Amino acid sequence: MIISEKKEETRNQVKEWKRQGFRVGLVPTMGYLHEGHQSLMEAAKRENDKVAVSVFVNPTQFGPNEDFASYPRDFEKDAALCEKTGVDLVFHPDAGEMYGEGFCTYVDMEGLTKELCGKSRPIHFRGVQTVVSKLFHIIPADKAYFGQKDAQQLAVIKRMACDMDMDIEIVGCPIVREADGLAKSSRNTYLNAEERQAALVLSRSLAAGRKLAEAGERDASKVKKRIEEVLGEEELARTDYVEIVDFADITPIENFAEAKKGEVLCAIAVYIGKTRLIDNFIFQLQKG
Ligand code: AMP
To answer: Is 37 an active-site residue?
Structure first.
């Protein structure tokens, strides 16, 4: 497995693979890898000849009062997991390599990024789009893999790739959870034992909302209310948002039937103590 800290070396390697006719899959991450990330690597392995993983805690997607400095990092462990999973290249630049002197170009979007996480994290998606665009140029892969765990991010990246005619297929992968339902996240490491238990309210509230939808409820405000009720039962939880939107363009809907491609995203962000966690489900409307 190649470990590269340099953009040029990485791009040359990937170009060489392309020249040899290999299909290349890319998995962008911020490291502190877990089974969620691993599932993306495995999907990339199944569908490509070579797999590249980037490990980079991207400063431009963190707000001034967010957890950039304390974000967990353990590159040796990450590299070992990549090696074990059969990854071919790990790109692990530092911030200076990614954002050279005089850097002042950003990628931004008019729609999709203002709702949900965009409300409390106003510069987050601009940073995500910028770094992902850069990664697509450094690693000119055929396909890039993103988790539904960050559903808004997945929708934003799909939109960006389409709008900017990027020559790459964006593949969404299902949420990987702990046995008790908590969505796996590098940030789960911030939780103490009591908070870890309290964090189960996220998946529990979504399960209650999904149950209503599966029973035929199509009024978004009723599903939202049910999710909020369950979240309200947990003392350690403080809700940032509960939103029901059209997954296609992240616009709010009043009725599930309004979802243009039949996919309704029910997404939540909840503080457990000081840790902000997100989770969601996508409800597919039956056609016809
Ligand atoms: P991160 O390192 O948190 O920026 O995540 C890198 C990629 O892994 C993103 O596409 C995430 O959506 C994805 N990911 C993170 N956690 C999970 C999970 N529990 N299940 C599936 N994908 C995940």
So the answer is: yes
